[in-house]
Amino acid sequence: MDNFAQVVVDGLMNGAIYGLVAAGLSLIWGVMDVINFAHGEFLMAAMYACYWLGSLAGIDPTVSWIATGAFLFLLSAVAYKAVVRRCIGKAAMAPLLATFGLSIFLKNFCLNRFTPNFRLLNNTALSGKTVNIFGAIAPVPQLVTALFSLVVIAALYYLIKKTRTGWAIQATAMDAEAAELMGIDTERVFTLVFGLGGMCVGIAGGFMTGYLAVFPEVGTLFSLIAFVVVALGGFGSIPGALCAALLIGLVESFAGFYIAPVVKYVAVFALYLAVIMVRPKGLFGW
Amino acid sequence: MVSRSAKGKVLKALGIAALFAVILTCGASFAADKVIKIGTIFPLTGPVAVSGQNCLAAVQTAADIINGKYDWPDFPLAGKEGLLDGYKIEIVAADHQGKPDIAKSEAERLFNQEGVFAVIGCYNSSSSKPASAVAERLKKIFLCGASSSAELTERGFNYFFRTAATDGIESEEFADYIDYLNKNKDAGIKTIGFLYENSEFGKHAAEEGKKAVAEIGLEVVSDVPFTVGATNMNSEIQTLKAAAPDAVFGAALGGDYSLMVRTMKQSNWAPKIFINYCTGYQSPAINKELGSDGSFYMGGMGYSPEIAEVYMKGALPAQEIYRGKTGFPLDSDSSQEAVCLHVWAQAIETAGAVDTEKVAQLLRTETFPSPLSLSGEVAFSPGGQNNRAFTVITQLADGQYKTVFPLDYADSELVYPFPAGDKR
Fold first, then answer.
1. How far is residue B174 from each of residues A129, A270, B24, measured CA to CA in Å?
2. Are B144 and B80 in the same domain?
3. ipTM of the complex
4. Domain shared by B99 and B134, yes or no
5. Does residue B15 sit within a domain?
6. What's the pLDDT tens digit per position in A95-129?
7. Are residues B73 and B155 in the same domain?
8. B403 confidence band (pLDDT: 50, 70, 90)
9. Average pLDDT, chain B
10. Could you tell me if B349 and B372 lie in one domain?
11. CATH number of the domain residue B88 falls in
């Protein structure tokens, strides 16, 4: 029973974290039809920012996530203005290749400036703490990250569905030209969406630095899983991304424990393939 | 129609360009006459870039020592500037990113286009395998430092030379130690689990480990390969915890190692003893970041600053040059890459010529003094394995590598059993 509870708790915690990483990606795709290949590197940039805030200024990740969220909002908005904007309306591959180039630039910039050394924040406010949930041990840093992920995703959903800004984003996603005719500044909406996408991953990265090593490759597998989450949940659907992320977390955890740890990612990608074959638009796509 | 004077100007310009080309070519060849190019292929980017860059820094350290002049009597070739009658070593670095196919193509490029005399690499066993096959086909020397898969020296290659101990040698030593603990310290270690990356290195280390522990009658109760670069290790540690082996042999590099250590601590479980193959355990940089979380883990090591202070004093000045490049002391893996260049340099000095066949023959037959090796010397068996390769088992405590086995080298008592995360 303890093992079962542990597997469920691990799966839900990891799933919620995947959800926050993927939410921004889903939003960008849903509104702009752009696949941001630099998403994993945005996560890495957030983790480096949080690490340096922690190691140089002594700011704990429980606080520095605010700064990393803001930093990634700015970084993403600048990346949009400087790179992505120039590719929209061009060949279909242009934004894809541009963000891929951006990912290579960011990764190698960090490799060059910070060396490939693995960096860990020690003695953070939550480090080493665990709580018992129905017999399962939940490390507090991961648990807080997971719970906060749910809060941020809920806030993002509220922003999209219940505010005027969100309606403008939805209108732009449905028909950018019509939205412009209605007086919506779509350029500003695109910048905001790219910034919000970055902010989500910035907040995730800020919290994750409390328990993960920071190095130039840290975002690689997270971004791959985020792509699967977005495709599985349905491109552009934030609730879909969350449900898909939780499902992926559970599949990963159950396959990893009850079949073999080495197949946990195999199971995730197998599930993705199965869903895509049966329902190509994803679980919540339209 | 082009005028006669214009034609003359064009011809004059072409003539001057040709003259410059000839001068440059001659200059290059004059310069090349006194340079021996050595290629290196390491993972300078990618998941284990930190290890690859350290390996390159170690090779460059050895090249600096050989190219320069130092008053270090215990370090062969340090007192002489360059090799033979003034040859300097030039390192041509290549990056395989942790990918075997790139390692192979980089080996071909280094030999065929860069014209290197020999190649040192590749850290990852999976990359050393195809890259060294290129060298063997071209009848060129391939020196291997840290790649530990025993299979590399079981292929019967003639131009492949490895200085480090293999997983097989380390596995036997680990098993010997557990046997010693059971017989002399009543340790009660009866079961074992394996936690290793799902790669050439990890799988081979686990295979050798299983063979070695079978000899001392341990029961394998858990076998846990994991995906390199995993986002979490919850399932892996939970699987081990459920099987509760008395001992665990681990093989995880870089970021995976730090993730493993932290996940293990959070699980509030630990085996009685946890011994690592050449892994993140050996990296002073990683252990500095892990702080006290890294304590009580163990591993086989051919070099550590603490061991060098006692048994390898000749290596200490070289360590300072390396520290100037990386900010950290030499480690077990990178030191072996420096040994490769140092041994090769001694062979070429003995051969008296820049001749691959003569140098390879000397590498096959001679014994070379090596202050960077724990045994103090290097000699290669047929197939290329250094038959003097030797490691000790250490345990991390308070950020220092304490030697616990063999007993002749031991400077500390083992902290046993390994305390779980909630008991530290």
1. 33, 38, 57
2. yes
3. 0.86
4. yes
5. no
6. 899 999 999 999 999 999 998 888 999 889 998 88
7. yes
8. very high
9. 90
10. yes
11. 3.40.50.2300
Could you say which residues from 258 to 277 on chain B have a Cβ atom under 8 Å away from some Cβ of chain A? 258-259, 262, 265-268
Q: What's the domain count of chain B?
A: 2
Q: Which of A117, A129, A250, A268 would you mutate first to test chain B, the one with the most B CBs within 10 A?
A: A117
Q: Does B49 sit within 8 Å of A217, measured CB to CB?
A: yes
Q: What is the pLDDT of residues B342-388, one digit of tens each?
A: 999 999 999 999 999 999 999 999 999 999 999 999 999 999 999 99
Alpha carbons A253 and B36: distance in angstroms, whole number: 53
Summarize pLDDT for B185-212 with one digit per residue, the tens: 999 999 999 999 998 889 999 999 999 9
> Which token pair is A104?
């290579």
In a domain, B179, yes or no: yes
Report pLDDT for B19.
Answer: 53
Kindly state whether residue B25 falls inside one of the protein's structural domains. Answer: no
Which among B229, B235, B291 has the least Cβ separation from residue A217? B229
ω before B406 within 30° of 0 (cis)? yes
Q: Tens of pLDDT along B80-137?
A: 999 999 999 999 999 999 899 999 999 999 999 999 999 999 999 999 999 999 999 9
Given an 8 Å threshold on Cβ–Cβ distance, is B421 in contact with A128?
yes
Q: Which residue has the tokens 């910035």?
A: A202
Domain residue ranges in chain A? 2-278
The reply to whether B328 and B285 lie within a common domain is no
Residue whose entry in the numeric block shows the structure tokens 């993140």: B280
- B258/A128 Cβ within 8 A: no
Q: Which residues contact A279 (CB under 8 A, 6 or more apart)?
A: A285
User: What are the residues facing B161 on neighbouring strands?
Assistant: B143
Q: Are residues B136 and B175 in the same domain?
A: no
Tell me if B267 is assigned to some domain.
yes
Structural domain of B418: 168-301+392-423
Q: Please say whether the beta carbons of A32 and A194 come within 8 A.
A: yes
Record: fold of A2-278: ABC transporter involved in vitamin B12 uptake, BtuC (1.10.3470)
Q: Is B242 on the interface with A (CB under 8 A)?
A: yes
Task: Give how far the C-alpha of residue A46 lies from the chain's centroid of Cα atoms, to the nearest Å.
Answer: 11
Categorize the per-residue pLDDT at A235 as very low, low, confident or very high, splitting at 50, 70 and 90: confident
Q: Which residues of B are less than 8 Å from A120 in CB distance?
A: 258, 262, 289-291
